[in-house]
Each structure stands twice: as structure tokens, then as C-alpha cells.
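Propose amino acids for all 169 sites.
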């Protein structure tokens, strides 16, 4: 099961990297279009879609690598059962919020598909396509938070030391 979950997080991160490269392509197309006086319709909208996809798909991998920003001021003062209780409560709340986000972003993508909703810009992209990456990213994030919660409850969660946590602050 661990290998499957890690493969899920790594796969989402790899997909996020693909969208980052596509974002670069969109930005370069926009720059070249301005410099060489040609227009690529919808390139700005597609750049936004690629940026959102990369961000949402990378969230779970970022969480599992311990790179999310944490406010350690409160938790660093806690010890023993109080610290574990706070971690469990925090992970439960984060899991619930991530699951709600996954549910509603999936519902949004489904509604956009059902109602044939398209973007208002000149590209007229069906909105369910970019919304699908948001739904997938939040779903994988919810799985990652639940994974962290289960690991914490089993006493197998690897916490960051203050030195490790500070390298991204």
C-alpha cells in the first residue's frame, strides 16, 4: 500500500511538472507572439490553466516531502500527549477540509461538463477540462492528509526537526 500511495504522490508531481513545462511553452508563445507580431488565441487563458494545474497537482507531493509551511511556534512548546493530540486534531481538520475541497471541486467540474460551460475568453475552452486538474489535485491531497493522519495515529509519522522545517521558512 505504501508503494502505491507514494507512486500516486509522485505521479501527481510528475504531472504537475508536465504542466509547468506547458506553462513555459504558453508564456514563450505569448512573448514570441508579441515580439513577432502574431496572435495565439487563448494563450493567456491556457497559461492560467497550466499554472492552476501545476499548483493543485503538486500539493500532495509537497505535503509528503514536508515542504508545506507550518507554524511551529505553538507545537514546538507542546510535549507528549498534548503534542500528539494537537497533531491528530490538525491532521483530522486538514483531512476534512481537503476532502470537502475535493468533493466540491469534483462537483464543479461535473457541473461544468453537464452544463457545457465554456470560458468567456476567445478560446471557448470547456471549463471542466482545467477544473478536472483541480479536482484531481485536491483528491490526491485529501488522500495524502488521510495518509498522514493514519501514520500519526499508528505512531509511524516522521516529523521534521526544527532545523529541517526552517529551511523553507
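Proposal:
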Amino acid at each position: 500500500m505504501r508503494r502505491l500511495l507514494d507512486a500516486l504522490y509522485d505521479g501527481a508531481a510528475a504531472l504537475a511538472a508536465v504542466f509547468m513545462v506547458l506553462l513555459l511553452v504558453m508564456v514563450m508563445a505569448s512573448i514570441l507572439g508579441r515580439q513577432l507580431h502574431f496572435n495565439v488565441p487563448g494563450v493567456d487563458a491556457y497559461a492560467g490553466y497550466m499554472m492552476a494545474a501545476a499548483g493543485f497537482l503538486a500539493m500532495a507531493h509537497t505535503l509528503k516531502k514536508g515542504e508545506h509551511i507550518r507554524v511551529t511556534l505553538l507545537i514546538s512548546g507542546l510535549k507528549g500527549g498534548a503534542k500528539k493530540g494537537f497533531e491528530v486534531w490538525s491532521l483530522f481538520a486538514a483531512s476534512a477540509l481537503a476532502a470537502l475541497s475535493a468533493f466540491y471541486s469534483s462537483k464543479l467540474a461535473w457541473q461544468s461538463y453537464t452544463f457545457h460551460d465554456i470560458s468567456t475568453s476567445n478560446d471557448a475552452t470547456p471549463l471542466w477540462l482545467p477544473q478536472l486538474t483541480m479536482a484531481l489535485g485536491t483528491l490526491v491531497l485529501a488522500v495524502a492528509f488521510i495518509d498522514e493522519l493514519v501514520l500519526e495515529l499508528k505512531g509511524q509519522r516522521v516529523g521534521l526537526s526544527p532545523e529541517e522545517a526552517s529551511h523553507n521558512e
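The chain is about 75% helix and 0% strand. The two ends are 32 Å apart (CA to CA).
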